[in-house]
Amino acid sequence: SRDSSSNSRGALVVLEGLDRCGKTTQASRLAQYLEGLGHSVELWRFPDRTTSVGQMISSYLSNESQLDDHTIHLLFSANRWEKRSLMETKLKGGTTIILDRYSYSGVAFSCAKGLNFEWCKAPEVGLLAPDLVLYLNISPKMAAERKGYGSERYEQIEFQNQVVEAYRDLMIGSNWQIVDACQPMEVIEKELQEIVLDCVKKCQNGAPLSDLWS
Ligand code: DGP
Ligand code: NA
Ligand code: NA
């Protein structure tokens, strides 16, 4: 029952945050919520481990393979590029996409290793710019206490401290919405629903899609 007027487009909503900040759960709840209201919505995630590039990334993350820091950075980026045109088609067709991680993870996690900020951003230029970035804010220490922590390559407190620093650099001058990820799940859920619904409505007859970094 989505708005089928010709200029109606979907919103591109990104959830970012440290590992175990709860964004995967919240992304899925958000998608269900919008669907329940009759919106056309899809839940996506990056890395998308289902593609051949995504399988290389997955094997790297589980420490089954080793790759040069620049090489893995470009693979993560390629993984977003291979979905760009489908993403554009969906959004223009009126479908909202809730995205579990995007280019900001790409920059934050590679900068955390010491790679140059501008170098990290470069391959992301020209991907679609999100309409909304939600940052689920949690300290590395709190995140590390959550279930399942430590199972993949980047889930170490020292490293996540560096990731936080990089996210902070990305936040400067941005209009990210920062949400306290240590609140009860239902409270976070309600908070996100309100922000996202507002964004979805604005996008229906709002500005056309633009490119990163804008
Ligand atoms: P997830 O499936 O959301 O748990 O992400 C897997 C891990 O990969 C997580 O530690 C975050 C990290 N990650 C996500 N996107 C990127 C990226 O573009 N570049 C790098 N270097 N790491 C990423
Ligand atoms: Na993770
Ligand atoms: Na992901």
From TrEMBL:
Pathway: Pyrimidine metabolism; dTTP biosynthesis. GO terms for molecular function: ATP binding; dTMP kinase activity; nucleoside diphosphate kinase activity. The keyword ATP-binding applies. One of its GO terms (biological process) is dTDP biosynthetic process. The keyword Kinase applies. GO terms for cellular component: cytoplasm; mitochondrion; nucleus. Residues 15-191 form the Thymidylate kinase-like domain. Its EC number is 2.7.4.9. Signal peptide: none annotated. Keywords: ATP-binding, Kinase, Nucleotide biosynthesis, Nucleotide-binding, Transferase. Belongs to the thymidylate kinase family. This is Thymidylate kinase.
